[in-house]
Structures are given as C-alpha cells and as structure tokens.
Design a protein that fits this description.
With 241 residues, the chain is α/β, with parallel strands linked by helices. It is built from seven helices and eight strands; from the N terminus they run E-H-E-H-E-H-E-H-E-E-E-H-E-H-H.
Length: 241
C-alpha cells in the first residue's frame, strides 16, 4: 500500500513506466447525466475539461505522453480520440467485450508487455475527481518505486478516510517496508469490502484503515503470471486475443 506525496521520477527507470487509464465504464451511478452513449468520464463536471482529460493531465506528471495508454471499448473509441487527440491510436486498447475490471487490466498488461518486456504499469480510473494533482502523481510514483524493488508484488494506493463511508472498500495497513521510497509503503494486511456503518466508524477511529482507491501498479510479467495461475478463465481468452 502506498500512502499518499512528492514528485520524484528516477531517470534510470522512467522509460519502463506506463500508465493505463481505464475508460471503458458506462457510468451507471451518475445516471441520468451519464448515459451509455456518453458516460461520466466524458463529461466536464468540475472544470471546462472532461474527467478523462483531467486524468490524462495528471498522468503526464508521472510518465511521458507516449507511455500513457487508454483502455476502453469500441463504442467509446471516438470519444477518447476526441478528448485526447495527443494519444496515439496504437495507445488506445480496445476491449473486445465488456468483462469488468480484471480482464481489462490483464489485456492492457499483455498489450504493453508485448511491446516492452520490462514494463511496470499503473492502472488508474478515468472518472475520479482529484483536487491535488501533485499529491496523486507523488503517490503513483511511489507505487512504481515499490514494484521496482518488490517485482513480484502488486501495489495499491490507499486514501486516508475523512468520514465513515459505507460506499468504499478499505485496506488494513500491515508492516511498513524498508527501503528508499518517496512515500511510506506498507504490506496490505487485509482488504475489507464496503462495511456497515458501525464498522466504518470503527475503521475511521483507527489509523490503520485506508480507503481503497482501486489504483494498481505492477510489473507486467509478474501480473500476467498471477493471471495464468489464479484466473485461468481470464488467461485462456487472452492468449487467443
């Protein structure tokens, strides 16, 4: 788990870092503004820019434009191109079917590892409103540092909770890792799904529970090996694709 801070990119590893913006969701929770034809990531909610454009700007604080990929479905390819004309067409990963998050991440990991066998990838949401872009960039950078020193691990970003939310999953912090990171890095002791109100209040009272942002960073080779071993139903179609 990477706790949220500073912007530091190590030049000797920068070329192997990639960000994949997950932009295939249909945005059902923001209906009726968010429609199947134009889900929430393609709407300007907090600024003149759409949420996808704001996400792309944050990603550029961490990696070059050439190392930013967009994962989406065929239905949204034109909207992605319209919002992000600087993204090369080869960097738009089209999911052949909407099969939820894990298969989409696996397809992105396979696409990138076929182009760069020494890649580290961070997958981030396209529809989050984030006030402090530099803090977000710092946390992502620390997650890359973590998986570069722990190559068989997957890093996830935790957010300090501000209220006892029952709408988020939580991560319980375990032992802190030794090492030179731009942020504090911990072992994830447990993952807790959306709790009831009383449990959420208990989590808020202790320092060891963070909201799960759903941002994951990994070495592609290690991640695809996990998929092969633990999710063969995802791995088999990948080989065909």
């Amino acid at each position: 788990i990477v706790e949220s801070v500073s912007t530091f990119i190590r030049n000797n590893t920068r070329m192997s870092r990639y960000i994949v913006i997950m932009a295939g969701g249909t945005g059902t929770r923001l209906w009726p503004l968010s429609r199947k034809s134009r889900p929430k990531q393609f709407h300007p909610l907090l600024s003149p820019n759409t949420l996808l454009q704001e996400t792309f700007e944050r990603a550029q604080k961490v990696v070059p434009v050439s190392q930013i990929y967009i994962a989406t479905t065929r239905a949204y390819r034109d909207l992605v191109t319209e919002d992000l004309p600087d993204v090369a067409q080869d960097n738009i990963i089209i999911e052949p079917a909407a099969k939820s998050t894990a298969p989409a991440i696996a397809l992105a990991a396979l696409t990138i590892t076929l182009r760069d066998g020494d890649a580290s990838v961070a997958t981030i949401a396209s529809d989050h409103a984030i006030a402090n872009a530099n803090e977000c960039a710092s946390a992502l950078t620390a997650s890359f540092e973590a998986v570069e020193t722990q190559p068989t691990s997957i890093a996830t970003i935790g957010i300090n909770p501000t209220h006892p939310s029952t709408a988020f999953g939580y991560i319980k912090i375990g032992k802190e890792l030794d090492g030179t990171f731009s942020k504090r890095v911990f072992i994830a002791d447990a993952f807790k799904e959306k709790p009831k109100a009383a449990t959420a209040r208990k989590y808020l009272a202790g320092w060891e529970y963070l909201w799960n942002a759903g941002y994951f960073t990994f070495r592609t080779e290690s991640f695809l090996e996990c998929i092969r071993e633990l999710a063969p139903d995802i791995h088999a179609p990948l080989t065909k694709i």
